[in-house]
Amino acid sequence: MNKTLSNFLPYAMLFCLVVMWGTAFAALKISLETISPLKVMSFRLIIGSITILTFFLILNRKLPISLNFWLWSSLIGFLGFSLPFSIISWGAQFIPSSLVAILMGANPIITIVLSYFLLKDRLL
């Protein structure tokens, strides 16, 4: 890869990510007009799972087989993805998609403030 292309590629990838993130909330709002929040969340998780599984296969990685791994992964998957995506999809029915995007974008700031007060962590 030449130097110009290698300098441009990270910016192009970041731009694509921004477009995907930016349109996700409008797409969520549109999809909620025809399907339930639970189905929206399910489709998001299925698409993500298929994507990750595809990368595992392309990179020739093996999936862990231990029961302990899958129990913890299931718990983390539920608390970290299924539950939040369900709540986001449910809440997006009642507020504009722009507000959903702003609230989601505020997550890192809210996390910093809560960790400061609840866990006595340093700010940044």
Describe this protein's structure.
The protein is mostly helical and 124 residues long. It has one domain. It has 5 helices and no strands. Helix 1 crosses helix 4. It starts with a helix and ends in a 5-residue tail after the last helix. 7% of the residues are buried.
> What's the main sheet like?
none
Report the total helices. Answer: 5
Number of strands: 0
Radius of gyration: 18 Å
Query: Span from first to last CA?
Result: 37 Å
* String of helices and strands: HHHHH
By helix and strand content, what is the structural category? mainly alpha
- What is the domain total for the residues? 1
Low-confidence segments, given as residue ranges, are: none
The chain-level mean pLDDT equals 90
Q: What general form does the structure show?
A: globular
What fraction, in percent, of the residue positions are helical? Answer: over 70%
Which helices and strands, and how do they pair?
Blueprint: H1 3-31, H2 37-58, H3 67-91, H4 97-105, H5 107-119
Helix pairs in contact: 1-4, 2-3
Describe the structure concisely for a colleague.
By secondary structure, this protein is mainly alpha-helical. Helices cover 79% and strands 0% of the residues. Helix 1 crosses helix 4 and helix 2 crosses helix 3.
Keywords:
single chain, 124 residues, mainly alpha, 5 helices, globular
